[in-house]
Amino acid sequence: MTPARVATPLPLLIAAFLAGSFGAGPAAAQGKLDARYVATLGGIPIGRGAWVIDIASGQYTAAASGMTTGLVRLFASGQGSSAARGLVRNGNLFPSTYASNIASDQKSEDLRIVLQNGAVKDVAIDPPTPVHPDRIPVPESHRRGVVDPMTAALIRVVNGDPVSAETCNRSIAIFDGRMRYDVKLSFKRFEAVRSSRGYEGPVTVCAVQFVPISGYVPHRSSIVYLKGLRDAEIWLAPIAGTCVVVPYKFLLPTPFGLGVLEATQFVSVPNAARTTPTSARMQ
């Protein structure tokens, strides 16, 4: 989801408000995650999804898929997938490609971004973004020093403690193919979680603030709403064997009730365990 699409399918909701920078040493950044999520709005189930991440010594991959469920499908059905891959050099992650596909009753869209050393080299969107006279252009300078939405969801732990207040203290530049925006995280509190399968333990809760920079229409209602939002939260849990934390739970107040994305399964292992990667197909 881009921030302008509150109702976008599940996997992009994961990525939209998250960001990270990387600098962990190679031995501290190798692990795998197989997670499943459910999404609710006002307590009513609206979607489910899967997320698989593999951080190895030379490369990383992340893939997510999701679909609408329950009563929502009576009014509008949708499904989506997104994936990113890149290189791991000296413990740092360098995204190279990001792709997403969204399909609903009304439309479908394919998006692809090619990056090199933090700079956007190419963007392809099918169908193309409609021209809007009030859309703020994205200058070339705003396409440098950025991460893609999926890579942005892998957040490096600076001090070695996977659950720490410092993890939240960051502001990250993201380019999603249309918009250049910042996501600002700030520490709120610690919580304890227990998934039905996998992780049980503490998480760091960060407040999330959305700051549009370019590529958006200023008076669009979703942009105005998200700019003023101060109650969104992200709960971050660690991937075993790494210095990376990722979203376990996400809370987004909306005009229709509280939107919640939460892991029901969160299984992570160090790469040294040599487990077989699990696909991101729906179970």
Characterise this structure.
This protein has a 15-stranded mixed sheet that branches. The two termini are 22 Å apart. The longest helix has 8 residues, at 221-228. It has 283 residues and is mainly beta. A hairpin with a 3-residue loop joins strand 2 (44-55) and strand 3. It has helices at 10-16, 72-75, 221-228, and strands spanning 31-41, 44-55, 59-68, 78-89, 92-104, 108-116, 119-126, 155-156, 170-175, 180-194, 197-198, 200-214, 233-238, 244-254, 257-270.
Write down the secondary-structure element order: HEEEHEEEEEEEEEHEEE
Quaternary structure:
single chain
Strand content: over 45%
Round the mean pLDDT to the nearest integer and report it.
Answer: 83
Radius of gyration: 18 Å
Largest sheet properties: 15 strands, mixed
Features:
disordered C terminus, 283 residues, mainly beta, 15-stranded mixed beta sheet, 15 strands, 7% helix
Compact summary:
This protein is mainly β. It has helices at residues 10-16, 72-75, 221-228, and strands at residues 31-41, 44-55, 59-68, 78-89, 92-104, 108-116, 119-126, 155-156, 170-175, 180-194, 197-198, 200-214, 233-238, 244-254, 257-270. The longest helix is centred in the C-terminal third of the chain and has 8 residues, at 221-228.
